[in-house]
Amino acid sequence: MTFPHAPFQIRDVQVPNRLVMAPLHEITDQPFRKFIREIGGVGLVVSEMISSEALIRHAVKAEKMMAATGERPLSMQISGGRPEALAEGAALCEAAGADLVDLNMGCPASNVTKGGAGSALLRDIRLAERCVTGMVKAVKIPVTVKMRAGWDASQKDRGEFLDFLRMFEAAGVQALAIHPRTRAQQYEGHADWSIIARAVEAGTSYPIIGNGDVNAAADAYRMVAETGCAAVMIGRGALYNPFLFRQILDPEFVVTTEMRIDATLRLFQILLDLLEPREALHKIKKIGAWFTKGVPGGHGFRQNLHAASDAQALMAAIDALRHQGAA
């Protein structure tokens, strides 16, 4: 099986291929996006979720999350439950250089949904309509949405997500990424790709991007074949294997242990370039543990990684891992 190499359009934004790096909370910041683009294969990257309420307060952390340097195309994802705040937040993203602005209607975290944001919007289609309409009116760049299959199994089984698809089309949404788990499922169980297929079959004027349980190249091929989706969005699979995008595009591409170790080192170097040392160390402790799953000596490395108190100790841990892998 092969993967389609052609670019695709989100209104007037051309995405060079059909692979999208999913927005991941506290992961897909500027350093990680720079890193994953450097690895190669990804067509579109999306920022980590940014609170629209924090943006309009001009909170320093939220504004920092909008940082972008030479990333094209770039989508910035915002969350919220107030149409006015989302409209203003979308305009701020556009001013910061976003090519697309995405509304989060998928985050299942209780600290997000209790404020009416994330997947909580799936419980009120009229509020969701006001949110997307406000965003569309506020910006010239395309507005997109990432959603789940429903709040719970009963909403999913009733097919209410199809009502949202039609509403999005009328409101001017230009692309939809759908993660076919419910909010109640969180990240448990299997992603029901038949939901993606039904979304494609609905025949919307905008592209449907499939998301969920793509952990190997074969999964991406199968998702396109089974659902007909226009593109594939990958989240956790790219944390286990940041080379996954390249492997999807080139089935002959082989990832070695040395490449995975080098990737860990390169990400840390980028983090040190763009963040304060303490913040860089915190980030690599989280992400480096994912990258080294299955690497010979990886368990010992992860212990050393978490014990490292400065950059020098972490570099030493990476060198030790490299020597063990070469032994």
Task: Please name the defining characteristics of this protein.
16 helices, single chain, 327 residues, alpha/beta, globular, two-stranded antiparallel sheet, eight-stranded parallel barrel
Explained architecture:
By secondary structure, the protein is of the alpha/beta class. Helix content is 49%, strand content 15%. The chain is built from 16 helices and eleven strands. The strands form two sheets. An eight-stranded parallel β-barrel has the order 3-4-6-7-8-9-10-11, surrounded by six helices. Helix 13 runs antiparallel to helix 16. The longest helix has 18 residues. It is globular and about 60 Å long. The two termini are 36 Å apart.
In order across it, which strands form the biggest sheet?
3-4-6-7-8-9-10-11
User: What is the CA–CA distance across the termini?
Assistant: 36 Å
In total, the number of strands is 11
Q: How much helicity do the residues have?
A: 40-55%
| Number of distinct helices | 16
Give the SSE order as H and E letters: EEEHEEHHEHEHHEHHEHEHEHHHHHH
Low-confidence regions: none
Strand content: 15-25%
Radius of gyration: 20 Å
Biggest pleated sheet: 8 strands, parallel, barrel
Rough shape?
globular
Overall residue-averaged pLDDT value: 93
- Structural class from helices and strands? alpha/beta
